[in-house]
Amino acid sequence: MFQDTAPYYSSYRFPYPDELFQHIVQSFHLDKNSQVLDLGCGTGNLSIPLASYCQNVIGMDPDPEMLREAKRLASLAQVENLELVLGSSWEITNDMGPFQTTIMGE
């Protein structure tokens, strides 16, 4: 359904405000020891900025094209603590965590 749309999605989707990330960090007490799961990460609109606050972020999405775009954008942003995983909530395993919190965008 979203074939060939990932670059447009990442370019034209309204970005999340910085205040949202500050709210997430404060609400869930995130720090450089935290691991976060971004379920349905798409092109990394939440994962990439959130990675600067955490030890590790795992972005999981069932669409390989979205993950390719997220990988490209993470590389441009020089984010190295983002792991991108192909799959959905059905593929979450115990060895992926523990997570300080799990987030999902709109």
What does this entry look like structurally?
With 106 residues, the protein is of the alpha/beta class. The chain has helices at 6-12, 18-27, 47-50, 64-76; strands spanning 35-39, 56-61, 82-86, 101-103. A four-stranded parallel β-sheet has the order 3-2-1-4. The radius of gyration is 13 Å and the shape is globular. The two termini are 18 Å apart.
Any descriptors?
alpha/beta, 106 residues, 4 helices
Topology:
Elements (H helix, E strand, L loop, with lengths): L5 H7 L5 H10 L7 E5 L7 H4 L5 E6 L2 H13 L5 E5 L14 E3 L3
Parallel strand pairs: 1-2, 1-4, 2-3
Number of helices: 4
Helix-strand string: HHEHEHEE
List the quaternary state of the chains. Answer: single chain
Give the helix proportion (percent range): 25-40%
What structural class is derived from the secondary structure elements?
A: alpha/beta
The residue ranges in which pLDDT falls below 50 over 5 or more consecutive positions are none
| Portion in strands | 15-25%
Please compute the radius of gyration using only Cα atoms: 13 Å
Rough shape?
globular
Biggest β-sheet description: 4 strands, parallel
Q: How confident overall, as mean pLDDT?
A: 91
